UniProtKB/TrEMBL annotation:
<dbReference type="InterPro" id="IPR012338">
    <property type="entry name" value="Beta-lactam/transpept-like"/>
</dbReference>
<keyword id="KW-0732">Signal</keyword>
<comment type="similarity">
    <text>Belongs to the peptidase S12 family.</text>
</comment>
<feature type="signal peptide">
    <location>
        <begin position="1"/>
        <end position="20"/>
    </location>
</feature>
<feature type="domain" description="Beta-lactamase-related">
    <location>
        <begin position="61"/>
        <end position="335"/>
    </location>
</feature>
<protein>
    <recommendedName>
        <fullName>Beta-lactamase-related domain-containing protein</fullName>
    </recommendedName>
</protein>
<dbReference type="Pfam" id="PF00144">
    <property type="entry name" value="Beta-lactamase"/>
</dbReference>
<dbReference type="InterPro" id="IPR001466">
    <property type="entry name" value="Beta-lactam-related"/>
</dbReference>
<dbReference type="InterPro" id="IPR050491">
    <property type="entry name" value="AmpC-like"/>
</dbReference>
Length: 354
């Protein structure tokens, strides 16, 4: 994750300015809807096996898909495809934990680790999926119990709660039920799940791929990274979702549908990470499972996700109520793809497609 994020965040302003204005006029608040499909196609031309591009603006969501959802069987990507969202899981976990914190003393009173420390863990810049010593081909289908994860130093909020504070015993429910009661059911998100031991994706599935050192992809069994046991990323990176649901989450969070003012303010209270934001504009700050960063059309909030075979960026721009989600089906994109990806996200945050 560190290498990947460094590449994503260290882009110069110069690179950004060409990427952001690649299509359309950035000063024009509206954009021809056909352009949404062109943006998805461009990401595939830049080297992603498939790309899904989603924009939500007020209550309206538009999505475009391009490329192949499964190379070996030549299945085309569809807007409703499910993918692994990696660390885009963290804000959902933060919302669940904030509810629990305020609903009683269910959280551990550890003298050394506060809730804020845990949710701001490593400023969110570390992705468990990128640790070569933790995830190897030999552990691809291994089930990691919460206790084993803690022993490996993989302390995520729900893991800590379940193993050290008996979170699951206290509430009598697994963590998945907490996401369900505080997010999925109120928002009627029926296509999002947080699998712990299921190794395949629900249908329709968007497969994720590993490129070779040139960034070339094949549909062979080695390069298809989709199937794996997601327990290693419990609470941190195990979301499986379509782009539409990710956008709905961010729009709803900022519309006040998930947290009240007290808890929402806590979530958005950020610390500097000393990293640069998208395209090198301004700084990147981190709150409770949420980044804030400058864009040419206002401060945006959201999260990046990188997990084997996938790279996702989901951001919300409160100044115009736009949410943008871009999903790539590789986690080692070449530089031209990274540029196209950032330009696309900025366009989704700044221009309404209709
Ligand atoms: C939208 O863009 C497409 C492709 O550039 C173009 O063919 C079409 O005429 C445009 N539609 C409108 C209403 O501008
Ligand atoms: C979004 O909703 C707000 C409030 O109803 C409205 O003022 C605004 O024009 C809408 N934006 C778009 C782009 O439709
Ligand atoms: C943003 O959109 C939501 C609907 O998802 C709406 O409830 C809210 O009022 C809008 N906010 C603004 C500032 O337009
Ligand atoms: C805010 O939400 C939390 C969690 O749902 C709840 O426990 C708390 O009472 C709420 N606070 C206010 C001021 O409504
Ligand atoms: C995980 O799934 C495997 C394979 O189906 C099964 O053998 C194992 O018991 C499961 N572990 C847990 C903790 O559910
Ligand atoms: C792999 O990518 C490189 C650089 O983009 C290209 O020159 C080469 O032809 C590709 N190789 C194959 C086998 O597609
Ligand atoms: C399978 O894909 C990987 C990654 O793209 C590549 O390095 C490898 O050479 C491929 N193997 C075969 C047999 O095509
Ligand atoms: C950011 O830089 C400041 C000043 O050098 C330092 O005190 C702080 O620990 C750094 N924060 C992180 C998250 O690295």
């Amino acid at each position: 994750m560190m290498k990947q994020l460094t590449i994503v965040l260290a882009l110069s302003l110069q690179v950004l300015s060409t990427a952001a204005v690649a299509i359309g006029n950035p000063n024009q608040p509206y954009q021809n809807i056909t352009t949404l499909q062109i943006l998805a196609n461009t990401l595939v031309e830049a080297g992603s096996p498939a790309a899904i591009v989603t924009q939500r603006w007020n209550d309206s969501t538009k999505t475009a898909a391009a490329g192949l959802a499964e190379i070996a069987r030549e299945v085309r990507a569809r807007s409703k495809d499910h993918f692994r969202g990696g660390s885009t899981t963290k804000p959902w976990t933060a919302v669940a934990v904030l509810h629990l914190k305020y609903l009683g003393n269910l959280l551990p009173q550890s003298p050394s680790i506060s809730i804020r420390n845990l949710l701001q863990m490593e400023s969110g810049l570390f992705d468990v999926a990128r640790d070569p010593n933790f995830q190897t081909p030999a552990t691809r289908y291994k089930y990691w119990s919460p206790t084993e994860l803690v022993q490996h130093g993989r302390i995520a909020i729900p893991i800590t709660l379940s193993s050290e504070c008996s979170f699951e015993k206290v509430t009598g429910k697994p963590i998945a039920d907490t996401y369900e009661s505080v997010i999925l059911r109120p928002l009627r998100l029926r296509h999002t799940s947080f699998p712990i031991n299921a190794t395949t994706l629900p249908s329709p599935a968007l497969h994720g791929y590993l490129g070779d050192s040139n960034g070339n992809w094949t549909g062979n069994a080695t390069s298809d990274l989709t199937d794996r046991n997601p327990s290693f990323a419990f609470g941190n990176g195990n979301i499986v979702t379509p782009g539409h649901d990710l956008a709905e989450f961010w729009g709803s969070l900022f519309a006040g549908k998930l947290l009240n003012q007290t808890t929402f303010s806590e979530m958005l209270t950020t610390v500097p990470t000393n990293s640069t934001g998208l395209g090198g504009i301004g700084s990147l700050d981190y709150g409770l499972g949420v980044y804030s960063l400058a864009t040419p059309c206002g401060t945006a909030y959201g999260h990046v996700g990188v997990i084997q075979g996938y790279q996702i960026l989901a951001l919300h721009n409160p100044s115009n109520n736009a949410t943008g989600v871009v999903t790539l089906t590789t986690n080692n994109p070449p530089m031209n793809l990274v540029n196209a990806y950032i330009g696309t996200v900025l366009q989704l945050l700044c221009q309404k497609f209709e």
